[in-house]
Design a protein that fits this description.
The structure is a single chain. The chain is an all-alpha fold. The protein has two domains: about 50 residues, Arc Repressor Mutant, subunit A, CATH 1.10.10; about 130 residues, Tetracycline Repressor, domain 2 (Orthogonal Bundle), CATH 1.10.357. It contains eleven helices and no strands.
Length: about 200
């Protein structure tokens, strides 16, 4: 008879945990996907998740195959406060995409287009792990934060698509400093500029 019970710690355990994590994060979101829930989905003891991944955040990053850890890049963006943050966001983003991490990042974006689980996780990554963190640290009005964050995301997403996926010239070949100088002020306006009264009061 086949053995039942929790999956033993073998070479398949890590992949089982990652598969369960992708489903849990996509379905419940980062906050709602508990380690115990993920362990149950993978058929393992919760302690094994800590053994393989250390923290829930690292599990999330590994499950998404994220090319960067926001905790390592956000401090440089936020260090200068709100002044000039638009250009710093662009420069940091371009620095990641122009680095060796750019290849996996392109693959991740393409996967998100065709894979619903990856798309939901990428949304969690961009919104909760990056944009909300920026909005909180800059003390942006919570009632305006989601709108401002989504506007920033449209701009960053457009740059990524034009420069790295479709490779539309001359944007694809412009120096990062030039792209930041052109796009940064728009992102700055999305973060700090006034919103139309009809939108700001919703």
């Amino acid at each position: 008879m086949a053995r039942t019970g929790r999956r033993p710690g073998n070479q398949d355990t890590r992949e089982a945990i990652l598969a369960a994590a992708r489903v849990a994060f996509a379905d419940k979101g980062y906050d709602g996907a508990s380690i115990r829930l993920i362990a149950g989905g993978a058929g393992v003891d919760p302690a094994l998740i800590h053994h393989y991944f250390g923290t829930k955040e690292q599990l999330f990053l590994d499950a998404l195959q994220a090319p960067i850890d926001p905790a390592k890049v956000l401090p440089a963006i936020l260090a200068g406060g709100v002044d000039g943050i638009g250009e710093r966001i662009v420069l940091t983003m371009l620095g990641v995409w122009d680095s060796p991490a750019g290849g996996p990042a392109v693959a991740l974006v393409r996967s998100a287009v065709t894979n619903e689980l990856i798309a939901k996780m990428m949304k969690q990554f961009v919104v909760n792990r990056v944009l909300k963190k920026i909005a909180k640290d800059l003390e942006i009005d919570p009632t305006e934060g989601p709108l401002r964050a989504s506007l920033v995301a449209t701009q960053i997403g457009g740059v990524i698509m034009m420069r790295y996926i479709l490779k539309i010239e001359p944007v694809a070949s412009l120096p990062p400093a030039t792209v930041a100088a052109l796009i940064g002020p728009t992102i700055q306006r999305y973060i700090t500029g006034p919103l139309p009264p009809a939108i700001a009061t919703r």
